[in-house]
Design goal:
It is a single chain. This protein has helices spanning 2-7, 11-65, 72-81, 86-97, 104-112, 122-149, 152-159, 162-173, 180-199, 204-230, 236-254, 256-263, 277-296, 303-324, 331-347, 353-390. By secondary structure, it is mostly helical. The protein has one domain (36-362). The chain starts with a helix and ends in a 6-residue tail after the last helix. Residues 1-22 and 377-396 have low confidence and may be disordered. Pfam families: EamA. This is Solute carrier family 35 member F3.
Length: 396
């Protein structure tokens, strides 16, 4: 009997052991979840800093480049050619990280399925890749051309309006869910554009620059909405291949435009010796880094954190402009920057944010209702005890 008791624990002890094991499993799972979340937040901070520094750095370097090399379209063409490195860099990551390693040809064929059953044919290249190559070139060219006209702070903050344009186009074209808070954000963006124009007194120079940035933001929004409409969502390898295909389109069909601009002396430089190759390569590397973090950063962190890096580039550019240029931060400009930034942050709210807020408010109300009866019960229970203590004894 003693041996049986030693071998088989009592039911109460068995429940305690099972509870301890279950609690250990729960705590182990919670520990794993917390570590995973901490890693995501840590990588998120690193990605935010990378996005902010690369975007603001490329903007400032482009402004510096135009002092010696006044050729925004040539700079756009040169930087777009670096997109060819997307797929090779992705394949290197695939070789180091994936357990089943494939040859470059096999990986290329697998990623080509994104374009259709027949892969990347000539017809698909002209119907699905070429339009996005044109939009990519226009987005970057208009942005760089605006840097020549106005300061980098205004350019960076006005480009944040592309998030509002994406929502409006998605609501109209893709029939996305209507959200009142995003309509408010779009109104903030439009109001910020008008106030930014008013901050410089509606001069022709600043109006042209603001129009160029708004055009760049519109082209960027059109690129994103058409990509979702025509191609849907892409995996990392498919996105890398698509961006490399844009570089091929740029080399084959856009190269003639900088040549024409050079011989017509629209974008002319006297000799190749005065071309600041260091600035051109630095700008291209920073822009490539920004696009890599923007497209592949969601593999290691939250997409919202990546978008915050674009907003944080605005104060960085403002600090640099304060010390390097003659920018005047009057009240109208500051209010316009705050309004556009607030609209951008409102657009980062998830679609079900209102449901989460309602649930949080109902939980708080339930807790308050539970706390009030408990307090009343304690007071009521204390009254009889007090009366018992003060009642005189009959035996005495």
């Amino acid at each position: 009997g003693d041996e049986r008791c030693r071998e088989s624990p009592a039911p109460a002890e068995a429940q305690m052991q099972a509870g301890a094991e279950g609690g250990g499993r729960v705590s182990h799972c919670c520990w794993k979840c917390s570590v995973t979340q901490l890693k995501k937040i840590f990588w998120g901070v690193a990605v935010v800093l990378g996005v902010c520094s690369s975007w603001s750095g490329s903007t400032q370097l482009a402004k510096l480049t135009f002092k010696k090399f006044d050729a925004p379209f040539t700079l756009t063409w040169f930087a777009t050619n670096w997109n060819f490195l997307f797929f090779p860099l992705y394949y290197l990551g695939h070789v180091f990280k994936s357990a089943e390693k494939q040859s470059p040809k096999q990986r290329y064929r697998e990623c080509c399925r994104f374009f259709g059953d027949n892969g990347l044919t000539l017809k698909v290249f002209f119907t699905k890749a070429a339009p996005f190559g044109v939009l990519w070139t226009l987005t970057n060219y208009l942005y760089l051309h605006a840097i020549k006209k106005i300061n980098t702070t205004d350019v960076s903050v006005l480009f944040c309006c592309n998030k509002a344009f994406v929502f409006l186009l998605s609501w109209i074209v893709l029939r996305d869910r209507f959200m009142g808070v995003r309509i408010v954000a779009a109104i903030f963006a439009i109001a910020g554009i008008v106030m930014m124009t008013y901050a410089d007194g509606f001069h022709s120079h600043s109006v042209i620059g603001i129009a160029l940035v708004v055009g760049s933001a519109s082209m960027s929004a059109l690129y994103k909405v058409l990509f979702k409409l025509l191609l849907g969502s892409a995996k990392f390898g498919e996105a890398a291949l698509f961006l490399s295909v844009l570089a091929v389109f740029n080399v084959l069909f856009v190269t003639c435009i900088p040549v024409i601009l050079y011989f017509t002396k629209v974008e002319y430089w006297s000799s190749f010796d005065i071309v600041p190759w260091g600035n051109l390569c630095g700008f291209s590397i920073l822009l490539l880094t920004f696009n890599i973090l923007l497209n592949f950063g969601i593999a290691i962190t939250y997409p919202t954190l990546i978008s915050l890096g674009i907003v944080l580039s605005v104060p960085v550019n403002a600090v640099v402009d304060h010390y390097t240029s003659e920018i005047v931060f009057n009240s109208v400009r500051v209010i316009a920057i705050i309004i556009i930034g607030l609209g951008f942050l409102l657009l980062l709210l998830p679609e079900e944010w209102d449901v989460w807020v309602i649930k949080l408010l109902t939980r708080l109300k339930v807790r308050k209702k539970e706390e009030i009866p408990e307090g009343n019960g304690d007071i009521a229970s204390g009254l009889p005890n007090k009366s018992r203590r003060t009642r005189p004894s009959m035996s005495s």
